[in-house]
Write the structure tokens for this entry.
Amino acid sequence: MASKHFNAPSRASSAVPGGGPRSGVVHVNVRHNSRYTVVGNHLAQHRELSLLAIGLAVHIQSLPVGAPIGIKSLTARFPESEHRIAGALRELETYGYLERTRERLPSGKVVTRTVSYNQPGAEPTEPAAPEPPAAQPAAQEPAPTAPARPLPQPRSADLARHRTAMDLLTDLHRHDPRLLLAERDVRRLAPGVEAWLEAGARPGAVQRTLTATVPDNLKHAAGLLAYRLAELMPPFLPTPPQAVRPDPLQNCETCDRAFRAPAPGHCRDCLAEAA
């Protein structure tokens, strides 16, 4: 009787779809016709943001208008801790993908207003997408759009600070050639930089904010810088108290003992004895 031969199943084919390379990533794409979000490579491939911050930005951009994105609600949705979520939100604020401001309602309640930018620094081309019709009440009004803020102005004049602002703006093209400004634009934007410096921001921090993640399709450098100076204006930093310097040491003119006083003279003991 002939013996049976059992053949092992052949290994799964390692052919790459589309004949692509055998190493590295290969994309198998399907066109989305509904429920999708467009994300720019400037976010998906950001060199400075953490993976958590990139993923959080994508999640926020996919949410409908009015969806809660506080730290508590995000922690309830994802396994990361409140500390990590808060850090990722701060990253997105630093690079202009998120803006959070505290506002007081007419009722007196303080709420956080959050604005998500899918391309920081670019001029908006369309208003925020509304909710799908089925999810909106019939009498709901459209959400108001945020008006552009004016360029911040310094509270006081300072010649040295003005020169620093002018030099900072003139030097931006050394960090990115696309940020070469005309003289009239430098003079127009200088008060905004002065306001940042007056608020306590360091020149290096201002430069990094203005040159971070410049859009590839930048057409008007002065407009981008004016937008960032207005929208990302930091709060005034408290001035640290100045240390009180002690009076200098003096030698008593009577007993030659050392004592502290603003001017030469007699020590306390000699003054008391003379009195």
Residues 248-275 form one domain.
